[in-house]
Specification:
This protein is an alpha/beta fold and 230 residues long. The protein has one domain: Aldolase class I (TIM Barrel), CATH 3.20.20. The protein has eight helices and eight strands; from the N terminus they run βαβαβαβαββαβαβαα. The protein has an eight-stranded parallel sheet with strand order 1-8-7-6-5-4-3-2. β6, α5 and β7 form a beta-alpha-beta unit. The longest helix has 18 residues. The chain is globular and about 40 Å long. 47% of the residues are buried. The structure holds D-xylitol-5-phosphate (DX5) and zinc ion.
Length: 230
């Protein structure tokens, strides 16, 4: 089971917004203040952008002991799960939209890594509902996946609340993760509805001091968790 930080929130900076020529320095810059490192894998097919794959995860693993939260925006994640696990991924999140979900979740489980399930803004929550108790992470996309630096989609907030109700009903410890346009203003909005894992790219690596940005994000989210209904 994936663990929450001591204050009940997990800060997961996305290296998509970091300098790909200096990923070691980027990861070092947040090491003391982040809980996880979010790795955005894009295949140029599921999303119209290409990023990185298992060799870069392996390089990060050699450099850092951080929890590597790999977000697979891929049409055929099943062909690569084993390679990500071997490279040192701590968790892999697949998208519901690619289908074959039960088999992919089972495949990731057998590899002994954390298992996440992501849902795009336009995909109804009903699609992921049957899998809530079977995964460690539910990733609610708060932008259309593919690029960093987009604006948070307010209309997705009710889906976070739906996810929270579903996790409660399932009696599971599934963590609700949000990704896209998360910053000190939007993190509290989704924290109040049940989000506990906060992915942020531009709000961390787009700032002059990424460590301070993590601390600011943590404070904003944690305050909303304490004040929130859940
Ligand atoms: C988008 C990626 C995100 C992205 C978030 O497709 O999944 O993880 O890096 O970037 P920001 O925080 O800039 O919206
Ligand atoms: Zn992501």
């Amino acid at each position: 089971m994936l663990e929450l930080g001591l204050d009940g929130v997990v800060i997961a900076p996305s290296i998509l917004s970091a300098d790909f020529g200096a990923l070691d320095a980027a990861v070092d810059s947040i090491a003391a203040d982040a809980d996880w490192v979010h790795v955005d894998v894009m295949d140029g097919h599921f999303v119209p952008n290409l990023t990185i794959g298992p060799p870069v995860v392996a390089a990060l693993r050699r450099h850092s002991a951080a929890f590597l939260d790999c977000h697979l925006m891929m049409t055929n994640p099943g062909d690569y799960l084993e390679a990500f696990a071997a490279a040192g991924a701590d968790s892999c999140t697949i998208h519901i939209e690619v289908g074959n979900t039960a088999a992919l979740v089972g495949q990731a489980r057998r590899l002994g890594i954390g298992v996440g399930l992501a849902v795009n803004p336009e995909t109804p929550f009903e699609r992921v509902a049957p899998f809530v108790g079977a995964v460690d992470l539910l990733l609610i996309m708060t932008v259309h996946p593919g690029f960093g630096g987009q604006s948070f989609m307010e209309e997705v907030v009710p889906k976070v609340a739906r996810a929270r109700s579903a996790v409660e009903a399932a009696g599971s410890a599934t963590l609700i993760e949000v990704d896209g346009g998360i910053d000190v203003v939007t993190a509290p909005v989704v924290a109040r509805e049940g989000a506990r894992v906060f992915v942020a790219g531009s709000a961390v690596f787009g700032r002059p001091d990424p460590g301070q940005a993590c601390r600011d994000l943590r404070a904003a989210a944690a305050q909303a968790v304490v004040a929130g209904r859940w």
